[in-house]
Amino acid sequence: MNEWSGKGPAKHQQDLQGIVYYLIEVTSKEDFLVTDQHTREVGVPITWINSRELKFSDADGILTSVLIANQ
After folding, report:
1. Whose CB among 18, 53, 54, 60 lies 3.0–4.6 Å from 67's, allowing a Cys bridge?
2. Is the pLDDT of residue 3 over 60?
């Protein structure tokens, strides 16, 4: 995911500048479940926070949180 910095960058260290977190809001349960399915298909471990939010990290340690937006 962190391709803008080139292939194989060092993992992000605390207190350094850079992208460390993404928040993705989806508007439907279907989109949320598709995100879960595709993430699992590429072998990324997922942590379910609750029925409306899940989290995972990429190889560079950047955390992504996906949640169903309040409507």
Report:
1. 53
2. no
| Residue carrying the six token digits 């029925």 | 51
pLDDT at 12: 58
Instruction: Provide the CATH number for the domain formed by 17-68 in this structure.
Output: 3.10.180.10
Give the pair of three-digit tokens for residue 48: 């379910």
Asked if 24 and 64 count as a contact pair (C-beta separation under 8 A), the reply is: yes
Average pLDDT of 47-67? Answer: 90
The full set of domain ranges for the chain reads 17-68
Dihedral (CA of 64, 7, 44, 41) sign: positive
Average pLDDT over residues 43-64: 90
Tell which phi-psi region holds residue 18, choosing left (phi > 0), alpha (psi between -120 and 50) or beta.
left
- Alpha-carbon span 39 to 55, nearest angstrom: 10
